[in-house]
Design brief:
By secondary structure, the chain is an alpha/beta fold. Helices cover about 35% and strands about 25% of the residues. It is globular and about 55 Å long.
Length: about 260
């Protein structure tokens, strides 16, 4: 197992259990405790964990995005619900932009029965997911690969995403707050999503219930800049009122 894969597995355990123990990890991954300590030191330096005696705990105050491998296992059912709702918002022949979120991968999978879609994306995983679809036009933004995130970022990605005019831009976020707006854990991701929004007639935020009321490091936009919010659970009355005041359509499953 590569060191990066092992650290991702440790991060997954931290997300689930909130703490890890060096000796247990050493036995599980069949490596020395010194190797595990180096892994935890790296996770501590990166801001994901806080080293403690004999192990580490999750840094719950961190606003950083977890690597793609870890994020795709968070709330999978919520992402499937959002993807199902998105099917009704995308029409045959649409030109759309999808961001490099794990939610976007689920959406891409759910849209495969649509005809003649054009998809522009800076997500390696979305491109792989759609690599077997016939009669679609899949366009890469270009750009530099962000380590651990399967995302293309930087000036070339911005240029590529801004070179098209589409009907719909679909993007996710790390947090949505009534005052701070829509935020992400990384400035490079926020810049790319801002460009996606400028390229689209309709801006659709696909966000699960765990992101409401949270604020991350980098601002993408205000909530008033979004046209549609798609989520996996009916938001509170306060949020529905905020959406209504800002002219935002909110789509959620009806029970």
């Amino acid at each position: 197992m590569l060191a990066a894969e092992r650290r991702n597995r440790i991060l997954e355990k931290l997300q689930r259990d909130k703490k890890v123990i060096v000796s247990e990890l050493g036995r599980e991954f069949q490596v020395s405790e010194e190797t595990i300590r180096r892994d935890l030191e790296k996770l501590d330096r990166d801001g994901f964990a806080i080293k403690s005696y004999g192990g580490a705990v999750l840094n719950e105050k961190s606003t950083l995005d977890m690597p793609f491998y870890v994020r795709k296992k968070e709330n999978p059912e919520g992402k499937r619900v959002i993807a199902g709702l998105m099917e009704g918002l995308i029409e045959d022949g649409d030109h759309i932009i999808l961001d490099p979120s794990t939610t976007a991968v689920c959406i891409a999978r759910a849209l495969k029965e649509k005809d003649r879609l054009t998809v522009i994306t800076n997500s390696i995983e979305v491109m792989l997911e759609l690599s077997d679809v016939q009669d679609w036009n899949i366009i890469s933004s270009g750009g530099s690969l962000k380590e651990g995130y399967l995302a293309l970022v930087g000036p070339r990605a911005i240029d590529g995403l801004g070179a098209f005019n589409v009907e719909k831009a679909v993007f996710s976020c790390k947090g949505i707050d009534m005052e701070k707006g829509v935020t992400d854990g990384n400035e490079l991701f926020s810049q790319a999503k801002q460009t996606m929004m400028k390229s689209a007639k309709q801006r659709i935020l696909a966000v699960d219930r765990t992101k409401f009321g949270k604020v991350a490091f980098s601002r993408i936009c205000g909530i008033h800049d979004v046209d549609v919010v798609v989520t996996d659970e009916k938001p509170s009355a306060e949020w529905l009122e905020a959406f209504s005041k800002n002219g935002i359509r909110c789509v959620y499953p009806l029970k």
